[in-house]
Design brief:
alpha/beta
Length: about 230
């Protein structure tokens, strides 16, 4: 469904991605783990044709109109209400207004439909950005650190929604630096460090390969062992 082959990307003299190759299967949650600046967002930007690589190839098995993106910058209209924000995109997609209301309900913002975005907490803004990303029922969903900075309860709510989307057949491409999130959500994941893949596979199997117990702290230890740095 999603693939990269020998992707290289530089900005000036800095190489931000070096020989990146992977495949994400249809209907799975594929995780991309790494510290801030590791190149996670650059990979999403290349896959969604917002950036061109210097070399290599990539593809998504659906058209861009069948993808949804929740990026690290939400791009919401502060003066508009939650509902009006979604209505803007519903109009672009040619969808009926009720779809906006349904998307708000899915992310737990049904009671805040008429609240201005400027009045929302960070967690509510992130949920609204997620509602916008899933508004048109995409077959492929890109989520760039969707729970970063959120309280545990809000994060768990987003986790439940992501797992629900997977059950519906959505392919989810998730970036995170949260090992707990990777273990709970990801069918497979790759570890990215300074633009290079240092390991990939099922999170718990990665632990086993490196003689670690199937726990979140040990997956963190694997990353430290291989890179000399933690994820946080």
């Amino acid at each position: 469904m999603i693939s990269m082959s020998n992707i290289v990307k530089t900005f000036g003299r800095q190489t931000v991605l070096s020989d990146i190759s992977f495949e994400a299967d249809r209907g799975e949650i594929f995780g991309l783990l790494g510290r801030s600046g590791a190149g996670k967002t650059t990979i999403i930007n290349i896959l969604t044709n917002q950036l061109k690589p210097d070399s290599g190839s990539h593809k998504i098995g659906v058209g861009l109109n069948e993808t949804g993106i929740m990026s690290d910058e939400d791009g919401l209209y502060d003066r508009l209400s939650c509902l009006d924000n979604l209505q803007v995109f519903a109009t672009i997609y040619g969808m009926p207004g009720k779809k906006s209301e349904e998307a708000l309900e899915k992310v737990g913002l049904g009671d805040s439909a008429n609240k201005a975005v400027s009045q929302l907490s960070k967690g509510m803004r992130q949920r609204l950005a997620l509602a916008r990303a899933i508004l048109h029922n995409p077959k492929v969903l890109f989520l760039d650190e969707p729970t970063s900075g959120l309280d545990p309860n809000t994060a768990q709510g987003i986790h439940r929604l992501i797992l629900g989307l997977k059950k519906q057949g959505t392919t989810v491409f998730l970036t995170t630096h949260n090992m707990d999130e990777a273990v709970k959500l990801c069918d497979r994941a790759l570890l990215l460090h300074k633009g290079k893949i240092v390991e990939q596979g099922v999170p718990t199997e990665i632990c086993e390969r490196h003689d670690a117990v199937k726990t979140v702290p040990d997956l963190e230890k694997v990353f430290i062992k291989m890179t000399g740095e933690g994820l946080s």
